[in-house]
Amino acid sequence: MLEKYFNSPARLRALRDGPLGTSLESFAQELSDARYAQFTACSHLRAAKHFIDWAGRKGVPLARVDEAAVERFDRYLTHCRRPHYGHRQRLALLQGARLLLGHLRRTGLIMTPVAEPADPVLLVAFRRWMQQQRGSCDSTLQVYRRPILDLLN
């Protein structure tokens, strides 16, 4: 399936012979099945390879990769100077890494649980204040959650 996205024998060899080579093949198949445009799928596959290479250099066992590893990868990307992978394409690289993480979970290669992000301290304090001072119930406060998160971000 990787041939659909890459023509270079050297690129194909690098993708297949590295760690998770067969998983990159199945990831490419998943992207194709989801009807990703060729340019976008290539971008996600390159990002996945970059993430895998980074994890290997940092000693992160691939079976233990999780959202925290993607966050560390994000911090690395702000300083990355590799050609075609610079900090200017950070969001696209993160999206590719996250898609790969989801794929590895769906195929059973990674068993790490999905980490639910913790609410920001200000949101927790606001909820507590609303409950104590205004008697607001959880369902009411849940309605406020999304707009407050948008405001805080």
pLDDT average, as an integer?
A: 87
List the quaternary state of the chains.
Answer: single chain
CA-CA gap between termini:
38 Å
Q: Structural class given helices, strands, pairing?
A: mainly alpha
The stretches of 5 or more residues where confidence is low (pLDDT under 50) are none
User: What portion of residues belong to β-strands?
Assistant: under 5%
Number of helices: 7
> Radius of gyration, Cα only, in angstroms?
19 Å
Strand/helix succession: HHHHHHH
Tell me the overall shape. elongated
Number of strands: 0
Amount of helix: 55-70%
| Sheet having the most strands | none
List keywords for this structure.
single chain, elongated, mainly alpha, 7 helices, 153 residues
Structure description:
The protein is mainly α and 153 residues long. It contains seven helices and no strands. It has helices spanning 9-17, 21-33, 38-58, 67-77, 90-106, 121-134, 138-152. Helix 1 crosses helix 2 (21-33), helix 4 (67-77) runs antiparallel to helix 5 (90-106) and helix 6 runs antiparallel to helix 7. The longest helix has 21 residues, at 38-58. The relative contact order is 0.11. The model has no long low-confidence stretch (mean pLDDT 87).
Short description:
The protein has 7 helices and no strands.
